[in-house]
Request: fold
Amino acid sequence: MCMKILVALLVASSMFSQNVFALSAKSAVLIDAQVGRIIYENNAHIISEPASTTKIMTALLAIEKGDLEKEIKISKRASIVEGSSIWLGEGEKITLENLLYGLMLSSGNDAALAIAEGLCGSERKFVSLMNKRAKEMNLKQTHFENPHGLPSENHYTTAYELAIITKEALSNKTFSRVVSTKKKTIPWEGHTYNRCLTNHNKLLSLYEGADGIKTGYTKSAGRTLVSSATRNGVKLIAVTFGAPDDWNDHKFLLDYGFERCESKLIAPAGETVRSITIENGKKESVGCVVSEDIYAVINDDSNKFKVKYTDIPKSVEAPVSKGEVLGKGTLYYNGKKIKQVDLVAFESVSEKPPLSIWQKIKMFF
Reply:
């Protein structure tokens, strides 16, 4: 009986291992969103068409460079751009924030072009900004020619580099809020009713913990998909290009990653790092503590994570307030900075009261 169970487990394990390489995607990658380490990849570094997943970079730049409350006037060119649309009309005015929802939920090509023109005055200038941002991320195999992802000869990236763009974007709270929204109603100038936008990303409803981010399709690129999900403190990012069965590909990839990664508490909030001398205080010292939990997403490589505590003075002058910043705690992975938190005073320490005349005389003698 024990032998039969062992054989069954080995067969199941073998099938699971083989299925890792049975995705429908031509190119795929799975990374963790904290460090960016590759958990699974297949042809992740080959040049591919991103289609509408291009809009991840467009949205990131819109948030980084723009004022979300700014109203953008829609040009004729933006109103007639081919492909997916949120039906923007020439001369219509709409806020950048509402354009973002139209961009990332309904994949509006008109919204992408409107954002580009509204932020930089022209599509060409915005595209230049996209490529500059890609270089800042040290991406070597990515080049943009438009903000929406319609086919163009020199418009390309790789599954891995798109995952890195996504990692950067998801670190932005506004971006994360937008791409995790399932439905959104925005104004429709000239109409008695509003636009109702529905997120094309079915994983938001199909997969536990899904929190983003973007679908894409063109005839030449096929189906492209970028997804993210979070479970038990672990956030993963999956990217597939040319995947006829992309929803199932992503479910499998994310499951694969969650089985191999865990979130580990490296330094808990309130942990005392050092005791700092207090000059002229009612207490001689105060505890210097970590202000918030420091977690690391582990994948058989916990030895690569290190926390360093810096900028801590040997002493400080009273008074000291509880929560006052006294230093920095930085989490590193393989020598690369991942996260930084404040080190703060554990409690308040007030000044010593001034010496009375008798105390001064006593000290003198």
